[in-house]
Amino acid sequence: MTTPPRPEGYDPRAFEPFAVTVDLAVLTVRAGRLHALLVRRGQEPYAGAWALPGGFVLPHESAGTAARRELAEETGLSGTTVAGLHLEQLHTYTEPGRDPRMRVVSVAYTALLPDPPEPRGGGDAAEARWLPHDEVPALAFDHDRILADARAHVGARLEHTCLATAFCPPEFTLGELRQVYETVWGVTLDRPNFRRKVLTTPGFVEPVEGPPRRTGARGKPAALYRAGRATALHPPLLRPEGRSA
Amino acid sequence: MTTPPRPEGYDPRAFEPFAVTVDLAVLTVRAGRLHALLVRRGQEPYAGAWALPGGFVLPHESAGTAARRELAEETGLSGTTVAGLHLEQLHTYTEPGRDPRMRVVSVAYTALLPDPPEPRGGGDAAEARWLPHDEVPALAFDHDRILADARAHVGARLEHTCLATAFCPPEFTLGELRQVYETVWGVTLDRPNFRRKVLTTPGFVEPVEGPPRRTGARGKPAALYRAGRATALHPPLLRPEGRSA
DNA sequence: GCAAAAGTGTTAGCCTTACACCCATGG
DNA sequence: CCATGGGTGTAAGGCTAACACTTTTGC
């Protein structure tokens, strides 16, 4: 904002006010499929329809704070889960008419989680569930578009950032990390090449000291790694046949 | 937004309303230096201080529409100039207290222009000017941060998109395009390699048919190009020693 | 033993980098 | 004729892509 170009007799309370909300596209990788966290609406409009979790920003809150609060309220995810998740502002949706009730501007966030416990409904959400990304029905409001934008955004950021570790538990194998890429991008990657790329990128991952090893299912046990301190990837890890941002 | 979690007795008009504004980080390359379009505030708070152009979103507008309107009002740039510029949503700033008067949520945009005419003040802006990026004084509100974010964002997007052509006139030489990169990144690029990279990227630029040639200053006349239809760059054009997003 | 996944090695090819060199123009 | 920028060529090196092969586990 700059100089308040108050139109004739402008008074903040005279206009129909803007409501400011947050919407969350919460994504996880579970069983090799990308899942989104959705809630079933308990009220009109769109009562009974699936929607992204979210809600109003309160007067004292920043949008980021509101995002974490709403997520905890509506999905019953634990405080530590919500406190630790990776939140990233995605886009702000401002079209008049996107909410039939009133003028609503929504700040959308993407959030990434390692495979988490089943959520439960709460707050105004009648129900909360993980749905496989390719089985998501039509959503309320413009949430279809927000979810699509979120998926595209995450896919693009996997190329240039260490974001993928946000989908993994604190200690993970390179196979798990690779599966994040494969799931989000919908491709298969060459295991040896992926391994080299990740290990030669300083700060992407760091080995867990005590050489304990963990088994995925069957097959050779894999070494464990933690997320490193790096945040950007140079050079990037481009997806095959890639298109990006 | 999702289920409206109306706190007890919630009524949109009962809360102190949120104001929604847009702020614009308008950048151009002029004389080999990155410039930002700034306005001098005519009113309190921060009267007399430099700030980004911007203003309130009106009830019937989307934020993008408001951005173009405010830019035309405050800087006197022509309608065609404003209509044609490349606008990109950057980030939304929501911290309580970022405006001392009231709760203001601001949707920030970056806009890129080819070297344009000098703007004039208008609307609520006492004065509008291009300032070299490294001579920008402390700005009103949190506009310093917005401008810094915009510069970082543009620099990163030059690597992966055809955004650089937005800084160029409809027909331009490869030297002009290269200068955009060099100016924004603050590096010098190898001319032959830059040329090859641009020309071998399908859809980045296309040659202007009639082999007219234009002289920059002295030196051999250069061939002219138009922006192509491509929007993404694959593979990317990474900045040397690069760091990015 | 066989399937599955981890881990190591190797090679060909692409792309970038660095730099040499010629061309066209203005002073 | 020289400085300046456009345009072409080329060789070295880094990185990726593709694939062969060994290791270690569960069944």
TrEMBL record, chains A, B:
Keywords: Hydrolase. GO terms for molecular function: hydrolase activity. Residues 17-153 form the Nudix hydrolase domain. Pfam families: NUDIX (PF00293), WHD_NrtR (PF21906). This is NUDIX hydrolase. Gene3D superfamilies: Nucleoside Triphosphate Pyrophosphohydrolase, Winged helix-like DNA-binding domain superfamily/Winged helix DNA-binding domain. The keyword Methyltransferase does not apply. PROSITE patterns: NUDIX, NUDIX_BOX.
